[in-house]
Write a structure and sequence with these properties.
The complex is a heterotrimer. Chain B is α/β, with parallel strands linked by helices. Helix content of chain B is 27%, strand content 17%. Chain B starts with 12 loop residues before the first helix and ends in a 10-residue tail after the last strand. Helices cover 49% and strands 15% of the residues of chain C. The chains are: A mainly alpha, B alpha/beta, C alpha+beta.
């Protein structure tokens, strides 16, 4: 009868410094209280950036896509680069959340909420770029499968249509997963909040009570969602990679692309999580919940994916040489030493060399170091996509048609603005939803017992 | 924007109806301002009335240059929308050059005068024709000393002007910046006749060009281009004419040569005479020039030209052995101080080799008035000294086309009353007191005698463009003459011309009206058999200096100024089409460039794109450098036609005027302008700019894009083994399996890869195209033809710099072997790259909205309305033939240029992809006509895309490959047939290329 | 059930909560409901839950997605046949991706719907018996019984020393 409680020494726990459940609620929900000046300042900056973003976009719509630096042969540039970048960022969220959940990774709880929020907002950002990119935005809806006046449906053989499906699915599922996991915590917030906030939480908590029956179905539903989300994570970036791999462009047409892109996505995603939670941890005083244990784990994940990515780079160069195919060889020689050599070397440095430092425990355990490295990785991963998109296109099969692409100011404004758009939503999130999963933290904390722990029933 | 072709803008309903009435039953009104009834006859049987949507064709004569090619003009709802070569015309035989196409843009040139202009102080005010004619009459009546400065003009106008000028006791001077004066003079000295020699390029087995750029400039570019293509095309017997170019710089003509002998500038005479002396057993073979021959040997030639004696000797031997041979003397691009002598020397060479009467003919008859720079120098003196009261300028723009050193502008300013007949503003008209804008030749009557025995009528093909109140100069002169009390014998210039031809008509050949009507139909009035016996060499009546001329110091580089392949001497510069047409040699658009050998540049630390100051004793210019291995290390070259200051929106401010650097020197004895006259120093300014070029890499990196085959390898079986299977399949479906390693071939053709499944159901046509690279001369006529036919917009220098040129045809130019230091083989490959209409088109499956797909007829269709603009297709096109509308470029096209738009072709919107459509509108038109009028299928040759129609080299053939007898099917059964990159990426293109045939072994261009 | 009413006890400790539930069930009380701040396996066990039917929802909807994916792509390709890139009109490999994505999408949506249906969410009814502490640190047990047996229940619950024990009037929300 009763419960066989395992006498776990506190040190082995995920959050040794957290005493009891009430403390969790208190600490986490404190983040939702009236924000300080810093937060408002940041939000202001983001709003300004969003202004730049839509200003530039509007200008482009008014003048034509020509205000970008794109040309023939380089029909894709900063926009697609940034699209892939954000889709990549979106990955670690669901990865950390779903996959680590299925594997019962003990360090997941305190970061996955932030990671999932990041995922949702990153997809929201990425989703804008195909729209920004097309020549006739006012017709972009033609990619959506609906019977148009002539009953012509989209071309399901086109990787771009796959993209439409993959991205929308990914957004829907991640958003659902994110929201579902938050409901019990919203209920917790509701129970402490007052006034208008209480009303707000009452509505979005959907009347959660935490009854045994609710928890029962909730748990199962959550597992299934995780089980569905896990393969989705892998599929989405594979599909994105096929936008390139399905073509015949030298430098794009490679079977390695899917795993290569997925690894890269996780790499950049985890880096972005680090970039985000470090300041969050400081600002909201969540040190007890985001311990070096977590950063260490994320660092190891970065290290692993960085090695996979580096391997992909190397094998690409090797295979280009090994194929003996002149066009392939030229393409990769040009990648390393051609007009865009600098982009390639930024990529290799940030994604290949810098992460080597993560081999050292001291660095993995130094939060500032991790923060800096994560930023390097973000830069490196943006350039990886730039290298793939631009250098492959500007020297293709037809030497006489080779060309050069120079990004325009408009493109840069939109790139910058996209970060603000993302930051805007993330800032709102930190104030409106519990940034750390309260109920799951409690799961990994030792339950309070009346009888002394040592005694077994 | 999309349908700017109706009566909506510009054309007034009244005019529209008038035009409709005009073509009624073939009896038509050319609405001249004088408005008499005249007869215009459409080429095809005229419909009872203009049916909107049905085009009416007229024949006329291209008045773009002295070649006077025959033209067909397609009109729709009374406006000319496309000009094409007239296959019946003996000179051009259906070909037409880029400049010919661009004359349409001069017709609709938005910078034309809106009407006659009268100067009041500093401003020009528009007057009425009655007023200005009265003014002119008054001025002429009062003036002491009238001078008429005329450019090139047809025989009738020429005569009218003569009678007019004589009647008022004036003097007449002819001036044409780009003239054949030295050649003409040499012909006169040597053979007495006053005509130009006529070359039979086609039948020469060995062709020598002593710096004669006959493909792009010269007396008859289209005809000579065609001749070269036919000569150098390898016939089934495996024989092929050889073309050797001697000159300091490879022009477009030079790039087509099999061998290049980079002789020093001005050493043509020495080389020609050296060869002649080597050929002739004894000098007396040169008749009256025996003494000349004595003083020249291959040795002296070698010294003068910097070429090894052996090379010259060997060339001489072949020249006499490979009969009939042909040598062409320095043309308009190589006029140095001894150009006449050089031409004469070449005539002697032809004489001793026995080519006269076989490949070169000296026709007695005058063809066109000879123009002389020397006369202009005289005229300038008179004007400067105030002996000229009224100066009239027609068809010439000396203020631009003479070296400033000549001081024309200053002298012209001295003239109290200056009259211009220019139809659009130019540098000279800007100074005029009275402007009587002439008609464009497509709106006016005229005639032409391009060469002995050929006479053609130039008839108006449409009403005068209503935006401009223009009047044909002939009519003006007639009415002014009448006002001056002289009886010109005709009321209108039309009557005048007809009267002349009636007089010349031989009643024995039937009644005149029938002949006249026939002439208008076919486009040719008279065509007498070429020539009788050839004249003998005559004793020279003037002293000639055959030595290498001196070039003005100071300077260490000889400046080669040559007419532009696009702008001629600059008269064509105000055309956006030509400005954006990549120069056939440099592939640069919109701006000028200085050609310099990479070796020279490196020695001076100059890089491509560096802006340098070119300084001669006579002037200096800042111009960017373009590195060109096809020019001698001791020379630099600059093309004419740039740097206009008052010609119009598309000419002004683009490039520099090369004449600025030239001295005002007339060649003796011909009196032609000397364009290769001075040395220059080249000093970097330290500034750089990007070159607006469409050329990516000049090296094809051993890719199977433009391969070649050595003449010796033709018909060898090893080719056969390799591609036998391909070729036998090529006859039937066009799309053939890629010979893959192992059992790969069994896996092909892929399901539906041949025509797409739905096409297997019915046996419709399969459209394919063939380009014979052995014929293609890279002249780029097809580019402009396509642009005109398909409403392809121009985008301007800025956009081209960004890599956004829109042309559907890209003439790729790859250097294989170019050596400017010694005589030897030359291998430069041209490849017209258009949409390949692949069977397995990589662009199709990636489009998310089916904006591009494969039609049952095998065409890779682009549906503009469906396009969303993802540009995915362009990325995945290995040939990079898809172009994108980054802006709504058509917004920038001013009235009435948009009148030229082809109503059968959509004007593309901002943000959509476009590309070659195989001229789908022509395919449909031909199919419909065949079906509706005769209820049959379309026959081979009925569908002729714009590029094929225009191609002077006859290198392009289009047709249905399912028809075993179709020309295209026959042609691509050749062993030279290949498809670009196909074996590499299995795109199965519908466009077939025939490999260039070289005399030397082919080193590269074949993919391992 | 007008005659019945309920008791709500809130406990500080997990084991006491579990013991209370087990005791109540032993005594034959059926209408027991537990509130926990997080999903607690021990309590579910004590209440004797077995597999949740939500798996059926997930499976069925996911398979529907797969079917839709293939049917839709194939039908549209045949409905207006347009050949692109010389590929077969019906290119299954390409359509697998669409089918896969729809599988996931439908599966996820089905799961959520299932959850909402089964756990009566969203419920707009105001909580009758509930304590905000349940979302923070306390465990709650609510039992319903006829008035007659109410005292018995109260005794069992008190044995486990609840922080608080109160009479829940009327019927508890599900």
């Amino acid at each position: 009868m009763g419960i066989a409680t395992d006498p776990t020494p506190r040190g082995a726990l995920a959050h040794p410094d957290v005493e009891n459940y009430d403390e969790v609620n208190r600490d986490v929900l404190r983040a939702l209280e009236t924000p300080g000046k810093g937060w408002w300042a940041l939000l202001g900056l983001m709003v300004a950036g969003i202004g730049v973003f839509f200003g530039a976009w509007g200008w482009q719509l008014y003048k034509g896509i020509g205000v970008s630096g794109l040309n023939s042969p380089v029909g894709w540039g900063v926009y697609i680069t940034t699209f892939v970048f954000w889709v990549g960022i979106a990955h670690s969220g669901t990865l950390i959340s779903a996959i680590l959940f299925l594997f019962r990774a003990p360090w997941r709880q305190s970061i996955y909420r932030a990671a999932e929020a990041m995922t949702v907002f990153a997809v929201m950002t990425a989703g804008l770029f195909p729209l920004i990119h097309v020549g006739r935005l006012w017709h972009a809806y033609w990619l959506i499968p609906y019977p148009n006046s002539r009953f012509l449906w989209p071309n399901f053989k086109s990787p771009l249509v796959w993209d439409v499906f993959a991205i929308t699915t990914y957004f829907t599922v991640s958003a659902t997963f994110f929201y579902l996991g938050t409901i019990p915590d919203i209920a917790a917030a509701r129970d402490r909040a007052t006034g208008l906030r209480k009303k707000f939480y009452q509505v979005i908590s959907l009347g959660w009570r935490g009854t045994d029956q609710q928890w029962h179905h909730f748990g199962k539903a959550y597992i299934f969602l995780a089980a569905l989300a896990a393969p989705l994570v892998l599929s989405v970036h594979s599909v994105v990679s096929w936008d390139f791999a399905m073509t015949i462009v030298p430098g794009w047409h490679a079977t390695i692309f899917a795993p290569y892109f997925v690894a890269g996505a996780i790499f950049s995603g985890v880096a972005m999580v680090i970039t985000l939670v470090v300041p969050m941890r400081k600002i909201f005083g969540l040190e007890a919940y985001l311990t070096t244990k977590h950063f260490d784990a994320m660092a190891k994940l970065c290290l692993l994916t960085s090695l996979i990515v580096l391997y992909a780079y190397m094998s690409e160069f090797f295979l280009a040489w090994y194929s003996g195919e002149e066009i392939e060889r030229t393409a990769f020689w040009n990648r390393a030493f051609g007009d865009y050599w600098w982009a390639t070397w930024i990529m290799l440095t940030c994604n290949g060399l810098v992460p080597i430092m993560l081999w050292f425990k001291r660095i993995r355990h130094s939060i500032p170091a991790m923060f800096v490295i994560s930023i390097f990785i973000n830069i490196g991963m943006w350039f990886e996509r730039y290298v793939i998109v631009v250098t492959s296109l500007h020297h293709e099969y037809e030497p006489f048609a080779w060309g050069i692409y120079r990004p325009s100011v408009t493109e840069m404004c939109i790139l910058f603005g996209s970060f603000c758009w993302f930051g805007f939503w993330f800032l709102l999130f930190t104030r409106l939803l519990p940034p750390i999963a309260i109920q799951e933290l409690k799961e990994v904390m030792p339950a309070p017992m009346r009888r002394p722990r040592t005694e077994a029933h | 924007m999309a349908d700017n072709t109706g009566m909506s803008d510009g054309i007034k309903r009244r005019d529209f109806l008038k035009v409709v009435g005009v073509s009624g039953a073939g009896a038509t009104l050319a609405g001249c301002s004088t408005g008499e009834v005249e007869r215009l006859l459409p080429y095809v049987n005229a419909p009872d009335d203009i049916t909107p949507g049905v085009s009416t064709w007229y024949t006329t004569v291209c008045d773009g240059c002295s070649a006077q090619c025959g033209m067909w003009v397609r009109t729709r709802e009374g406006r000319a929308v496309k000009v094409e070569g007239n296959p019946n015309h003996p000179v051009s035989e259906g070909g037409l050059c880029s400049r010919g196409h661009a004359t349409l843009q001069h017709l609709y040139n938005p910078d034309r005068f809106s009407g006659p202009m009268v100067r009041e102080g500093d401003v020009l005010r528009q007057g009425t024709w009655e007023e200005v004619e009265a003014l002119l009459a008054a001025q002429l009546g009062a003036a002491n000393g009238v001078m008429f400065i005329g450019g090139r003009m047809g025989p009738s106008l020429d005569q009218l002007v003569d009678t007019f000028v004589t009647a008022i006791g004036g003097t007449r001077v002819n001036y044409d910046a780009v003239s054949d004066a030295p050649l003409r003079e040499a012909a006169r000295i040597a053979y007495g006749g006053s005509g130009l020699p006529r070359y039979d390029v086609e039948n020469a087995r060995l062709l020598l060009s002593f710096g004669n750029d006959f493909v792009e400039t010269g007396s008859s570019p289209v005809a000579h281009n065609k001749g070269l293509a036919r000569m150098s095309a390898a016939d089934p017997a495996g024989s092929k004419g050889r073309f050797v170019f001697l000159g300091p710089r490879l022009s477009l003509t030079g790039q087509n040569a099999d061998e290049w002998i980079p002789i020093r500038p001005g050493s043509e005479a020495a080389v020609a005479l050296g060869m002649a002396s080597a050929i002739a057993d004894d000098p007396s073979a040169a008749g009256p020039y025996a003494n000349v021959l004595q003083s020249y040997t291959p040795v002296t030639a070698a010294q003068a030209s910097g070429i090894s004696e052996d090379a010259i000797r060997e060339l001489a031997e072949r020249f006499s052995a490979e009969a009939p041979s042909l040598a062409m003397g320095p043309g308009v691009g190589a006029h140095h101080r001894n150009a006449t002598a050089a031409n004469l020397a070449v005539m002697i060479l032809n004489h001793v080799a026995g080519n006269v009467g076989r490949t070169v003919y000296y026709d007695a008859q005058v063809s066109g008035a000879s123009s002389s720079y020397a006369d202009m120098e005289g005229a300038i003196a008179e004007m400067a000294s105030g002996q000229v009261g009224v100066a009239m300028i027609h068809g010439a723009n000396p203020a631009y086309s003479m070296p400033p050193a000549a001081g024309f502008a200053e002298a012209f300013a001295q003239v109290p009353y200056k009259v211009s007949f220019a139809s659009a503003m130019d540098e000279t008209s800007a100074m005029a007191d009275l402007i009587l804008p002439d008609r464009h030749f497509l709106e006016a009557w005229g005639d032409s005698a391009p060469r002995a025995g050929v006479m053609a009528i130039q008839q108006p093909v449409m009403q005068a463009v209503p935006h401009f109140e223009s009047k044909q100069t002939g009519d003006v002169l007639l009415s002014v003459a009448t006002q001056l009390g002289n009886d010109p014998g005709a009321a209108t210039f039309f009557e005048y011309i007809q009267a002349r031809h009636r007089a010349a008509h031989d009643p024995a050949t039937g009644d005149f009206d029938t002949a006249w009507r026939q002439a208008l139909r076919s486009g040719v009035a008279a065509q007498t058999a070429a020539t009788g016996p050839q004249p003998e060499l005559q004793v020279p009546d003037t002293a000639l200096d055959f030595a290498v001329p001196l070039f003005d110091a100071p300077g260490d580089l000889t400046l080669l100024v040559h007419p532009s392949a696009r702008f001629g001497g600059g008269e064509f510069s105000n055309s956006a089409w030509l400005q954006e047409l990549p120069d056939p040699v440099s592939k640069i658009v919109w701006h000028s460039w200085l050609e310099m050998n990479p070796v020279t540049a490196e020695a001076r630390g100059i890089r491509e794109g560096d802006i340098v100051t070119v300084t001669s004793a006579h002037g200096s210019l800042d111009v960017p450098i373009w590195l060109y291995p096809g020019i001698r290390e001791d020379a630099v070259a600059l093309a004419m036609g740039g740097g206009h200051t008052g010609m119009g929106r598309y000419a002004d401010g683009h490039g520099v005027n090369a004449l600025t650097l030239l001295p005002s020197v007339s060649e003796q004895p011909s009196g032609g302008l000397v364009t290769i006259a001075t040395s220059v120093t080249v000093t970097p300014t330290g500034e750089r700019r990007r070159i607006a070029t469409i050329a990516g890499s000049d090296d094809q990196h051993d890719r199977p894009i433009a391969p070649a085959v050595a003449l010796a390898d033709l018909g060898q079986d090893h080719e056969e083994d390799e591609h036998g299977e391909l070729r036998e399949l090529q006859g039937v479906g066009g799309f053939v399996p890629v010979p893959a390693e192992g059992g790969g071939a069994a896996a092909f053709p892929l399901e539906g890869a041949r025509h797409g499944e739905y096409a297997d159901a019915h046996e419709g046509p399969r459209w394919v195209m063939a380009f014979d690279l052995d014929k293609c001369t890279g002249c780029s006529a097809c580019v402009t033809a396509c642009q005109a036919e398909n409403n392809v917009p121009w985008v301007g220098e800025e956009q081209v710099l960004m890599g956004r040129d829109m042309n559907w045809v890209r003439i790729e130019r790859y250097y294989e072997h170019v050596d400017a230091t010694q005589a030897g083989d030359l291998d430069i490959r041209f490849l017209p790259m258009i949409c390949q209409h692949c069977g397995n088109a990589p662009c199709e499956p990636v489009c998310p909205v089916f904006a591009t797909y494969h039609t049952p007829e095998g065409v890779n269709a682009q549906i503009y309305n469906r396009c969303v603009g993802t540009r995915y297709c362009a990325n995945n096109c290995p040939y990079k033939v898809r172009v994108f509308n980054w802006y709504r470029y058509t917004d920038d096209i001013p009235e009435p240029l948009n009148w030229q738009w082809n109503p059968d072709v959509t004007v593309r919107d901002n943000g959509v992809m476009e590309k070659c459509s195989f001229c789908m509108q022509r395919i449909r038109e031909a199919e419909n006509r065949a079906a509706l009028e005769e209820g049959r299928d379309v026959r081979d040759g009925e569908i002729i895309p714009a590029c094929e129609q225009s191609c002077p080299a006859e290198a392009i053939v289009f047709g249905n490959i399912r028809d075993p007898n179709a020309r295209v099917t026959q042609i691509i059964s050749s062993e030279r047939t290949y498809r670009a990159l196909d074996e590499l990426i299995n795109t199965q293109p519908a466009v077939h290329y025939l490999k260039k045939v070289t005399f030397h072994d082919v080193a590269s261009g074949e993919h391992e | 059930m007008a005659t019945s009413s309920g008791l709500l006890a809130s406990y500080e400790y997990l084991d006491s909560t579990v013991d209370a539930i087990e005791a109540l069930r032993k005594a034959g009380f059926e209408q027991i409901k537990a509130y926990t701040p997080y999903p607690e396996a021990h309590i579910e066990a004590a209440l004797g839950y077995d597999q949740s039917p939500i798996r059926v929802w997930t499976l069925v909807s996911a398979l529907t997605g797969t079917a839709t994916g293939f049917a839709f792509t194939v039908w549209t390709s045949v409905d207006w046949p347009l050949v692109v890139g010389g590929k077969p009109m019906v290119s299954i490999p390409a359509y697998v991706i669409i089918a896969f994505e729809l599988t996931i999408l439908f599966g996820a949506i089905g799961t959520v719907i299932g959850l909402f249906v089964l756990s009566r969410l969203p419920s707009i009814k105001p909580p009758v018996v509930y304590d905000p502490e349940f979302s923070s640190g306390r465990y709650g047990v609510y039992v319903e019984a006829e008035s007659a047996r109410l005292d018995e229940a109260r005794k069992i619950m008190n044995d486990q020393e609840p922080v608080e024990l109160r009479e829940g009037e009327g019927e508890a929300d599900a």
